[in-house]
Amino acid sequence: MRKKRGRAPLSFRYVPRAKDGGIDQLITMQNHTDVSLVPTVRYVARDIWGRELPHVVTQTVHGSDRGLPLLTAGGTGHDILRFDGPGSRDVRGVDVELVDLSESDHPPIEADIRTVMIDLHEKATADPAEFWGIGLVNPNPFGVLLRVALVAFEEGERDHPRQVVDVVTLQGDIDVASTSNDIIWLPEDVRGQFDDVDHHLVPQVLV
Fold first, then answer.
1. What is the pLDDT of residues 69-113, one digit of tens each?
2. Stated pTM of the model
3. CB 73, CB 9: distance < 8 Å
């Protein structure tokens, strides 16, 4: 009799083009365990018929291919993919290979942590031209460490997903206090130059 296999610790879902005007080429990662995990994954690009695109190189905004984002116990995280090379416009799916998986003692997240674009009047905005600052919201009863990235996308072209064309990661991880709201104002030469702000959790190193 074949032994029944248990559920995999992680599951992945790739969406090439968001239907709600959100971020295209998004990979969502779900942690199905009661332990916080730091995965390292490898992506293989495929076309709409499932054929591998061997000349396409996959890059990530948050470094899930380098073991950077933290997935808390029972939690969800994501990364944004960019494809380069011959056939990059044909990518509509990815295979995900789990290369490495390490554990972290980070506590589970009780409520969503958010980073949002903020305008000059300290209000959330969806208009890149009014993007003057980053709003940080942590409703949890403990502090968290975030790595924050500013992201610019290309102009939409027919039914192709919008690719990332520029990413600036803030220097130094951001220590966000428990049950707090904060704003980081952008330098003048950066204001209005990016389309969105995104983040991922970082394991905290206790010394």
1. 999 999 999 999 999 999 999 999 999 999 999 999 999 999 999
2. 0.92
3. no
Sequence-distant (6+) residues with CB within 8 A of 82 are 25, 58, 59, 60, 61, 163, 164
Q: 18-54, pLDDT tens digit by residue?
A: 987 789 999 999 999 999 999 999 999 999 999 999 9
3-state secondary structure string across 88-112: HHHCCEEEEEEEEEEEECCCCCCCC
- pLDDT at residue 5 in the model: 57
Measured between alpha carbons, how far is 84 from 136 in angstroms, rounded to an integer?
Answer: 32
Specify whether the CB–CB gap between 150 and 119 falls below 8 A.
no
Contact 176, 138 (CB under 8 A): yes
What six digits make up the tokens of 15? 């969406």
99 — phi, psi (to 5°)? -85, -40
C-alpha separations of 143 from 108, 170, 201 in Å: 12, 18, 11
